[in-house]
């Protein structure tokens, strides 16, 4: 997929959960944190058309009692294969630096599509990448913080704190998965 890949994968995930119309999808984007991907009809409908053109979704017109017919989108086997491949991508340092939103989007759909084991594995990889990246940020801050303008130093400190919070969340979430696995055995 191209520039709209995050929106496209978000749409694939939602229609994998259940077939939905474009209007239904817009409501999900408008009423949840997924709105960061767009709830604009000018983005969602063209993204659905691109997914359909690629054979990743199929839109079927459903008859209804209202005057307006609903076009309901379903994920295709080809779309599911592409979606699974995206979910299975390893977590990289570059992802941690540049694509945190995409990582969380992948994680949000992961258990439903790939199972709890993959979700736990993702959290392990995410924790490892964060654990190796945070010290380099702290070293940079230590070496350069006194020379930086106050606002720049504080912004960098904020970034370090955000990564620390994400690492704490990832470790806590992994512990929850591990406890659930122990409880089930």
Structure commentary:
This protein has 185 residues and is mostly helical. The chain has two domains: 5-86, Arc Repressor Mutant, subunit A (Orthogonal Bundle); 90-184. Helices cover 72% and strands 8% of the residues. It has eight helices and three strands, in the order αβααββααααα. A three-stranded antiparallel β-sheet has the order 1-3-2. Strand 2 and strand 3 form a beta hairpin. 22% of the residues are buried. The mean pLDDT is 92.
For the biggest sheet, the summary is:
3 strands, antiparallel
The tally of structural domains comes to 2
Q: H/E series, N to C?
A: HEHHEEHHHHH
Query: What's the count of strands?
Result: 3
Span between N and C termini?
40 Å
What do the pLDDT scores average to? 92
Q: Supply the number of helical segments.
A: 8
Low-confidence stretches: none
Summed up:
By secondary structure, the chain is mainly alpha-helical. The chain contains eight helices and three strands.
Give the tags.
185 residues, mainly alpha, Arc Repressor Mutant, subunit A, 2 domains, 3-stranded antiparallel sheet
Topology (SSEs and partners):
Elements: H1 5-17, E1 20-21, H2 22-31, H3 41-53, E2 57-62, E3 70-75, H4 77-88, H5 93-98, H6 100-114, H7 116-144, H8 150-184
Antiparallel strand pairs: 1-3, 2-3
């Amino acid at each position: 997929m191209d520039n709209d890949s995050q929106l496209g994968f978000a749409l694939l995930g939602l229609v994998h959960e259940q077939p939905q119309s474009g209007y239904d999808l817009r409501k999900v984007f408008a009423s949840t944190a997924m709105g960061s991907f767009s709830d604009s009809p000018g983005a969602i409908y063209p993204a659905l058309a691109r997914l359909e053109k690629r054979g990743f979704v199929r839109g079927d017109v459903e008859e209804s009692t209202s005057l307006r017919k609903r076009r309901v989108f379903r994920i295709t086997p080809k779309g599911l294969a592409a979606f699974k491949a995206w979910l299975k991508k390893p977590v990289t340092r570059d992802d941690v630096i540049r694509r945190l939103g995409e990582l969380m989007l992948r994680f949000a759909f992961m258990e439903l599509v790939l199972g709890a084991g993959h979700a736990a594995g993702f959290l392990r990889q995410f924790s490892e990448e964060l654990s190796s990246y945070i010290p380099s940020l702290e070293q940079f801050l230590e070496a350069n913080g006194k020379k930086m303008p106050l606002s720049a130093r504080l912004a960098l400190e904020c970034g370090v704190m955000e990564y620390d919070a994400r690492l704490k969340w990832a470790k806590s979430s992994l512990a929850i998965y591990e406890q659930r696995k122990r409880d089930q055995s």
